[in-house]
């Protein structure tokens, strides 16, 4: 089986969907599926004849578009490709997308062979706009892009509260800095470590955050390699992830901390699955998060229990399972 992934961004580009695609390609190779990636093209509608020739030259059994990515920008080439060639589409973001982006998604609904969403909530939202896609839509969750640190005892975790993700607005970073201010005010032994990559075009935003955090206990770790990142995540005792729209199955940063068995304090949203209540703590603001961290810190047995449940929950999102689900879907179409 030959699979061609079409992605606007792909490593070393800074893009979560690009990272996801890279991990999926690697997992498929382990299951003896030949997967290639088409990226770095002109995605404007005017370039569609050239794009079609390039796609056809791969002679792929399955064409699979990963959408959206930063590299596609606002161009409609991916939608036209999905109309002019039989494709599978994974739509990674619907409910939180701009209204114009949501309207552009109709192009994928016309002739796609299968539409994959990463959570049930996203699938339901899309079907409320486009009921006719219900017979060809399905859910396959995302996985964790960060390697596991083997043989790490959670007892070796330090008094660090971690945050990991792309550095750009609407990621809750102001709340993380507010928590650091509360830590300083209460003379807490905990400090915060923010690890991530600055999204192109948001360098001034990053600089403003660094300036805002200069007098609070925050360490910034930017553009580290995957091995270093895995160790930094695993050495945290807690993670504070105040997603503006709440945690969900499409939050790969939360999944990375789960995989490492880190105690997670986060926010609840409309798409937060109920089973996450078993392993995560929820705080509506930094003051509540501070209170939870204090309570768990003086109860090591309760914290250890939480860490075990968190790690167990991460087993839902292994790449071998995700690749297998894709392969079964492809075989149904061939």
TrEMBL record:
Coiled-coil region(s): none
Any single biological process term in GO: lipopolysaccharide biosynthetic process
Pfam families, per the entry: Glyco_transf_4 (PF13439)
Gene3D superfamilies given in the database record: Glycogen Phosphorylase B
Domain Glycosyltransferase subfamily 4-like N-terminal: 42-145
CDD domains from the UniProt entry: GT4_PimA-like (cd03801)
Keywords, ordered alphabetically: Transferase
GO molecular function: glycosyltransferase activity
PANTHER family: GLYCOSYLTRANSFERASE WBBK-RELATED
UniProt protein name: Putative Glycosyl transferase, group 1
Species classification: unclassified sequences, metagenomes, ecological metagenomes
């Amino acid at each position: 089986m030959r699979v061609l992934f079409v992605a606007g961004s792909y490593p070393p580009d800074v893009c979560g969907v690009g990272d996801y695609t890279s991990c999926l390609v690697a997992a498929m190779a382990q299951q003896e599926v030949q997967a290639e990636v088409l990226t770095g093209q002109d995605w404007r509608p005017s370039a569609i004849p050239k794009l079609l020739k390039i796609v056809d030259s791969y002679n792929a059994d399955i064409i699979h578009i990963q959408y959206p990515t930063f590299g596609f920008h606002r161009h409609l080439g991916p939608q036209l490709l999905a109309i002019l060639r039989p494709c599978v589409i994974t739509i990674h973001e619907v409910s939180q997308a701009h209204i114009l982006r949501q309207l552009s998604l109709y192009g994928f609904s016309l002739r796609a062979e299968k539409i994959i969403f990463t959570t049930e909530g996203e699938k339901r939202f899309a079907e409320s706009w486009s009921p006719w896609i219900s017979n060809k839509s399905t859910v396959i969750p995302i996985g964790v892009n960060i390697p596991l640190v083997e043989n790490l005892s959670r007892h070796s975790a330090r008094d660090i509260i971690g945050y990991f993700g792309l550095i750009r607005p609407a990621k809750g970073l102001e709340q993380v800095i507010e928590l650091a201010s509360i830590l300083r005010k209460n003379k807490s032994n905990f400090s915060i470590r923010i690890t991530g990559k600055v999204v192109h075009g948001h360098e001034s935003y990053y600089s403003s955050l660094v300036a805002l955090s200069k007098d609070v206990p925050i360490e910034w770790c930017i553009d580290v390699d995957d091995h270093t990142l895995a160790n930094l995540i695993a050495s945290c005792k807690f993670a504070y992830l105040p997603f503006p729209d709440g945690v969900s199955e499409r939050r790969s940063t939360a999944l990375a901390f789960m995989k490492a068995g880190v105690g997670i304090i986060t926010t609840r949203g409309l798409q937060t699955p109920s089973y996450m209540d078993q392993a995560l703590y929820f705080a509506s603001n930094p003051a509540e998060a501070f209170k939870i961290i204090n309570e768990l810190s003086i109860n090591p047995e309760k914290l250890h229990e939480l860490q075990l449940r968190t790690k167990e929950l991460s087993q839902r999102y292994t790449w071998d399972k995700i690749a297998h689900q894709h392969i079964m879907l492809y075989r149904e179409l061939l």
